[in-house]
Amino acid sequence: MGKSEYQPIHQGGEGKRTGWVVCPDGARIYVETAGSGIPILLVHGWTMSGRFWLHQMTGLSDRCQVVTMDLRAHGNSAKTLEGHSMVCYSEDVQAVITALNLKNVVLAGWSLAGPVVLEYWRRFGGEKLSGLALVEMTPFPFSPEKWNTHALKGYDFDGMHASFRAVQEDRTGFGGRFVHNMFKKGKAPSEAHNWMLQEHLKTPTSAAVAVYSDYVMGDYTEVLKGVSIPSLAIFGNSNHLCFGAETGRYVADQIPECRLEILDDSGHLPFYEQPEEFNNILADLALDST
Question: Among 3.40.50.300, 3.40.50.2000, 3.40.50.1820, 3.30.43.10, what is the CATH number of 5-288?
Answer without folding.
Answer: 3.40.50.1820
